[in-house]
Write a structure and sequence with these properties.
The complex is a heterodimer.
Chain A: H1 5-21, H2 28-53, H3 61-76, H4 83-107, H5 112-131, H6 141-148, H7 150-169, H8 171-181, H9 183-188, H10 193-219, H11 229-239, H12 251-270, H13 277-306
Helix pairs in contact in A: 1-12, 2-7, 2-10, 2-11, 2-12, 3-4, 3-5, 3-10, 4-5, 4-10, 6-7, 6-10, 7-8, 8-10, 11-12, 11-13
Chain B: H1 2-18, H2 59-68, E1 89-90, E2 101-107, H3 113-128, E3 132-139, H4 144-155, E4 161-165, H5 169-179, E5 185-188, E6 199-203, H6 206-220, E7 226-231, H7 237-252, E8 256-262, H8 267-281, E9 286-289, H9 295-305, E10 311-313, H10 318-326, E11 331-334, H11 343-352, E12 357-358, E13 360-363, E14 367-368, H12 373-376
Parallel strand pairs in B: 2-3, 2-4, 4-5, 5-6, 6-13, 7-8, 7-9, 9-10, 10-11
Antiparallel strand pairs in B: 1-12, 11-14
The chains are: A mainly alpha, B alpha/beta.
């Protein structure tokens, strides 16, 4: 948890800066609006954390979010009675994509980077084929309530965070970290490595389904809704001090990373800097965070002689 | 992994670099609403927060389009897709031949609801004519290079006439020029930089569209009111023209343009941007948009913030019209009518029969107002349907367009 302290300091600093630029942020409605906007990314980051801490990547979540929203709109088509069956189906789709990613990675021994990159291309291609580039149908009001009303989004976020923390405290969490830290050692000590990783991918798929439900609810149908979300989620996790390659990092810090990233975007926007710069900022963050993680150990060793 | 991340970051930086020539936006105005009355950041004091004029702005075209709005179109009033404003007819006797005909179509893309509605309408138009024996269409999927090879491929298929909806203006010009000597060419929607096509079909154009919306806001929003302008993306001539005309109108007005933002046409991004502006300025009095596809998302930002929806510029999509009616909004919908997809087929047949056609076929471009809202609102049509399809009397209506 020590690794995570910087991210909370950065987050606090950003929140103060936002409040200074926009006092509305301190009012309940203003802060609720911020939470509502963070919720999807925070949930995706939580899901991505499970995969990354086990030593893998999931690049398919962005496309999966798009698939969820487009499928929901097409199947619901404005019909309120379809809301709950479709919500259930979306969850199943998320778990299923995660299951396939996990099985291909563990059983076929395809590196997860390639597996999920492939899944990302397959899913976005499938959406394009199915929609011709422009989604059809409409979401029902009952579906949209989860993303439009801040209270729902915050409630879902709380449930996700709590579940994630509990999962990491349970045997499953310890197993996952052990797998990410040293796969061979974990395997030799009798850990079912493949099962742990498949479950991690399924959690990531589930998080994409939930994020899709929130994002679709927030702004309605769009074929671009999931664009670049996979990189935002990975950036958030890395920002939270979680080590790429697995074995180290805390889920709460990963979620704090998502808050920090979104706070940064909000601050940039408040100062009239937006658009393409967001990508550049993300790129710098992800390199800086990984570089800082790599530099830390030698720097510590050197420091006594230097001081 | 690290190498890939670096590559990703590099491409992101590249993207950021490409965007650095965006016109300065009003978003750099101070965050404190009280201080923004005297923007210190603008280089041209007269620009009222609208930034520099677009490099795509051509005064003569602007004047011509604004004048066309009040001109009466020639042709049957109940069939605006056959009408033309101020037509300069050209002789087509040299293209005359006996039917039945083989028509070909190189389509830029079918990747948005506007093009989907248009494409359906065009196919139904083809079905109306018994003298068309074959209709070959290739979809370029939004790629210039694919459309260039599509056009070459269609020339080898024995087409009697070639219809082209160019993906981009400059890049497709040589391909169109290359096709002109081989087959009568009809260009519609976006233009090309050559006058070799027999006819170029388009609604009045982007300047008229942009001005229609801006003038409405100037009329409805009290002097000093705050206007937010939302654009999809820079660099597309049709969209640049819409904004250029709006900028000219806003600069002459008493309105204060508090921001000009790019939404990428994304609903979530639009909603976030509008929410931020509401939070920052407390009150926005008008929203101008260069395309209506994300208008409903922008309206929802006001609803979710619990503030009244201000005067709005949308487009003729059903979701916006429905929102306008249900919310009793103050709104206007300039249009870029999808009925223009009928005209190229009609033009092709006229040319092949040796009948004269306008060199530049300017179709009427109506705007939907409070008075005409009920005429265009069609609750049985899909939410993303465009009202001005001119397709209501076609045999496949409404099923082919997804309606009930």
């Amino acid at each position: 948890m020590k690794r995570a302290i910087p991210i909370f300091l950065v987050l606090a600093g950003l929140l103060v800066a936002i409040a200074a630029a926009n006092p509305f942020f301190l009012e309940p409605a203003g802060f609720l609006a911020f939470l509502k906007r963070v919720a999807p990314l925070a949930i995706l980051a939580a899901g991505q954390y499970f995969v990354i801490v086990s030593g893998e990547f999931d690049l398919s979540v962005g496309s999966l979010v798009t698939v969820e929203v487009v499928v929901a709109a097409r199947l619901i088509d404005g019909d309120e009675s379809m809301t709950w069956p479709v919500l259930a189906l979306l969850i199943v789709i998320g778990l299923l994509v995660g299951l396939v990613n996990g099985l291909v990675t563990t059983k076929l021994r395809v590196p997860s980077f390639i597996t999920t990159l492939g899944a990302m291309l397959i899913l976005s291609g499938a959406v394009f084929l199915w929609t011709g580039g422009a989604p059809r149908g409409a979401l029902s009001q009952g579906f949209r309530v989860f993303g439009r009303e801040g209270v729902w989004a915050v409630l879902i976020l709380l449930v996700v965070v709590t579940t994630a923390v509990l999962l990491m405290r349970a045997d499953f969490g310890r197993t996952l970290v052990a797998v990410g830290d040293n796969e061979k050692a974990a395997r030799l000590s009798g850990v079912r490595v493949d099962r742990a990783r498949v479950l991690a991918f399924m959690i990531s798929g589930l998080s994409a389904a939930i994020a899709g439900i929130l994002l679709g609810g927030f702004a309605g149908v769009s074929a671009q809704v999931g664009q670049s979300l996979e990189f935002q989620a990975i950036t958030a996790v890395v920002l939270g001090g979680v080590v790429l390659g697995g074995g180290r990092g805390h889920v709460v810090a990963a979620i704090a990373g998502a808050f920090t990233l979104e706070a940064l975007f909000t601050l940039l926007n408040l100062h009239g800097i937006s658009g393409a710069l967001e990508y550049a900022v993300q790129g710098v963050i992800i390199i800086a965070a990984v570089a800082a993680g790599g530099l830390r150990l030698p720097a510590l060793r050197l420091s006594p002689s230097k001081v | 992994m690290r190498r890939l991340l670096v590559a990703f970051a590099a491409s992101a930086l590249l993207a950021a670099g490409c965007a650095s020539d965006l016109p300065p936006t009003g978003a750099s105005a101070p965050a404190d609403p009280g201080a923004s009355a005297a923007p210190a950041t603008t280089s041209a004091p007269a620009s009222a927060g609208t930034g520099e004029q677009s490099e795509f702005f051509v005064q003569a075209d602007y004047d011509a389009q604004l004048a066309m709005r009040s001109q009466t179109a020639e042709g049957p009033a109940d069939k605006p897709w056959e009408q033309a404003i101020a037509p300069q007819m050209v002789d087509t006797a040299k293209y005359k031949k006996d039917g039945p005909y083989h028509l070909c179509f190189s389509n830029a893309a079918v990747n948005n609801p506007w093009r989907q509605v248009g494409w359906t309408t065009m196919q139904e138009e083809v079905a109306l004519h018994k003298d068309i024996k074959e209709f070959t269409a290739l979809d370029a999927e939004g790629k210039d290079d694919k459309q260039i090879s599509d056009i070459a491929e269609l020339q080898a298929k024995g087409c009697d006439a070639l219809i082209i909806s160019p993906n981009t203006t400059a890049t497709l010009t040589p391909a169109v020029s290359g096709a002109c000597p081989e087959v009568p060419v009809i260009v519609f929607d976006r233009g090309v930089e050559t006058d070799c096509p027999v006819t170029f079909i388009k609604p009045i154009g982007g300047y008229a569209f942009g001005a229609d919306g801006a003038e409405f806001l100037i009329e409805k929003v009290p002097a000093g009111g705050k206007v937010l302008a939302l654009r999809i993306l820079p660099g597309v001539d049709v969209l640049e023209n819409r904004w250029a005309a709006a900028k000219v109108a806003f600069d002459k007005s008493q309105l204060q343009v508090v921001g000009v933002e790019f939404t990428d046409g994304d609903a979530a991004k639009t909603k976030s941007i509008v929410s931020d502006y509401i939070a920052r300025h407390g009150k926005i009095d008008g929203v101008w948009m260069d395309a209506g596809a994300t208008a409903v998302a922008a309206i929802e930002a006001f609803e979710d913030a619990g503030v009244p929806v201000p005067a709005f510029v949308g487009e003729d999509q059903q979701d916006f019209l429905q929102k306008w009616k249900d919310g009793k909004l103050t709104a206007v919908a300039p249009t870029y009518p999808t009925y223009q997809w009928r005209t190229p087929i009609i033009a092709a047949l006229k040319i092949l029969k040796g009948e004269e056609v306008p060199k530049q076929w300017n179709l009427p471009q109506p705007k939907i107002t409070q008075e005409s809202l009920d005429t265009y609102l069609q609750p049985d049509m899909p939410l993303l349907h465009y009202a001005l399809c001119g397709c209501e009397s076609m045999p496949g209506f409404p099923g082919k367009w997804g309606g009930k």
